[in-house]
Amino acid sequence: MTQDKPANTAAHPISPQVVKDLYERMVRIRLFETEAGKLMEAGKLPGFLHLYVGQEAVAAGVMAALRDDDQITSTHRGHGHAVAKGVGFKEMYAELYGRVTGACLGRGGSMHINDVTLGMLGANGIVGAGIPIAVGAAFAARYKSEDGVAVTFFGDGATNIGSFHEAANMAAVLRLPVLFICENNGYAEFTPQSKHMLLTDVADRAAAYGMPSVIVDGMDAVAVHRAATEAVARARAGEGPMFIEAKTYRYYDHQGVKGLRHPYRSQEEVDTWKARDPIDLLRDRALADGTATGAELDDIERRTRDEIAEAIAHAEASPLPDTADLLLNVYSG
Amino acid sequence: MTTITEAPAPAPDGTARTLTYVKAFNEGLGQVMREDDSVFVAGEDVAGYGGVFRMFEGLLEEFGPRRMVDTPISEAALVGLGVGAAARGLRPVVDLMFMDFIGVCLDQIVNQAAKMKYMFGGAVSVPLTITTASGAGLGAAAQHSQSLEAWLAHVPGLKVVMPCDAYTAKGLTVSAIRDDNPVVVMLNKVLLGSKSEVPEQIYGIPLGQAHTARQGSDVTVVALGRMVGEALTAAAELAAEGVEIEVIDPRTVQPLDTETVIASVRRTNRVLVVHEAVTFGGLGAEIAAQIQDAAFDYLDAPVLRIGAPFSPVPFSPVLEKAYVPDAARIAQGCRRLLERS
Fold first, then answer.
1. Minimal Cα–Cα distance from B151 to chain A, Å?
2. Domain positions in chain B
3. How far is Cα B174 from Cα B272, in angstroms, rounded to an integer?
4. Which of A148, A179, A269, B61 is deepest in the core (most CB within 10 A)?
């Protein structure tokens, strides 16, 4: 494995402002998802729900290293990326409710939430499919002589699909500004990593494409942020793609919020990961080193809760799509 | 901005310019690239080698490696690159070489390119053009000879065009690239060297508008791609027997101009649909269904479909010739339709 630099080495101190930013992004994701889970449980949301809870440090850490004009492609578990990139709660909840005010006008649902004005090129219902699309977005940036980068998020399971390998090789050979962010949560749906690949570190796969890689603690937003910042700078400077494996964990199951037919992971394993909760870790650190006060962090949480309550009320009050518009946006022009 | 030239104007001095199908495609592509810097070409061997069918010859020299991009043999990543670049405002032309290779990148075409605008609530357009060579007749066997238009025409969000000669190869390609939707341009391998009159200026042919290639009063023949030429040959043969065939070339199979077909059927009362693809589940089935919906009372005979038998494309030339519909089978079909009264 080409592990360029250990990402946890604090080359530069993280400013209090960035710490609060990371905290806020994580809290926004956590609370958005927790409320979405409750709404699903209450039978208010149609369709599927793949919750991002537990993995917040990855989306927050990476997104805090990006600009608005940097592009991302996401996955079926895409709410966290959308929230961290700045997509509004109102558009997101309204979409989960299937309302016409939603991010996709009620046409896409959870797995297609997007905001192209913020560089969020969509969640994606097909595992691995967003990866080559990010390569295309990076291609477009370079074609237009812009210094934007594209970031693609995917899980450990997605690195077993062809489009990952094709896109990684293509990004490398075309030397495009793409960040490959593998959120290794240890499971491809319900299948543990040990049963879907023989590698311990997914990052090893990057070497096959001549791409540098780094492994980070995916529960540590600061570590993720440091690694992402370095990779973004490198890509922006024209030095090509980079692979970051963030080892993280999914608190909910693959889909939904209800119990499972088969226990596929032990309570002990779940508890061990939850003991290193990314939000708690950052909070403890910020309070310990004085980068934030408890009041400041509580205030972030309070403001977020208010915003969520307002967004849910907005979604519930929003009109449903008109069935006369079934063919809307099938074609352009 | 689209210049429409419905048919090449005959040169008064009899020195009309003809081009081969592949050169006409190449000329149209080059002209759109000159007109619009957001157009680029990516694919396997499109740049340095000029395309295995010489489709892209000379373009690297003129436009350079920024706009002519050789890629690894990675069709999923290639089409995905096109989708991402299109979503970011470029007009990519990605080449799949052989249409049969579509199987390895179908997700990017069907689930990504085709649906992105719809799924995103209209927030983005995907002006992606996919060029690919289709059709049997060169002894290329089962994995290099298919006509898979029915697969793609079935997918909401995609457009599919099937040029039948050099004139349409240029005009439909220009329109495909200018269109704001993903469009698959099915070039026909057998026709690549065929010549017809092609205007020198840039022109687009409207997508979704059929062309009546020959007027006639006795039988309507709806022919796709290379079958247009076969139908015209059959029409000449039948004219000698006093039978006048109307030949309709839909040019675009998605969107499909059924109005032109139905108007013709209302006059001729007999109709045959012919394509190279296997008959089962082919465009012929769709066209027949739409005709019976809209013009059942005008029909003097059931709609006849002619296509390939339900088998992979065979290799041995004797089998391949028997497999692909031709003028003789079309003429025979017309005669059968006329036997019924």
1. 17
2. 18-197, 211-339
3. 30
4. A179
For the domain spanning B18-197, the CATH number is 3.40.50.970
Please say if the pLDDT value at position A173 is more than 70: yes
Q: Right CATH number for B211-339 from 1.10.3720.10, 3.40.50.920, 3.40.50.2000, 3.90.1150.10?
A: 3.40.50.920
Residues 6+ apart with CB under 8 A from B96: B43, B75, B78, B79, B102, B105, B130, B131, B132
Structure tokens at A321: 């799509």
Residues on chain A touching B66 (C-beta within 8 angstroms): 143
Average pLDDT, integer, range A112-134: 97
Query: In the CATH hierarchy, which fold is given to the domain comprising A16-251+268-315?
Result: Rossmann fold (3.40.50)
A116 vs B contacts (CB less than 8 Å) = 87, 120, 123-124
CA of B40, closest CA in chain A: separation in Å?
Answer: 9
The minimal CB distance from B121 to the residues A71, A139, A329 is found for: A329
User: Same CATH fold, B211-339 and B18-197?
Assistant: yes
B282-323 pLDDT, tens per residue? 999 999 999 999 999 999 999 999 999 999 999 999 999 999
Asked whether the beta carbons of B24 and B197 are under 8 A apart, the reply is: no
Interface confidence (ipTM) of the complex: 0.95
Say which of B75, B149, B230, B286 is annotated catalytic. Answer: B75
Contact B78 A170 (CB under 8 A): yes
Q: Can B275 be counted among the known catalytic residues?
A: no
Minimal Cβ distance to A167: which of B69, B77, B89 = B77
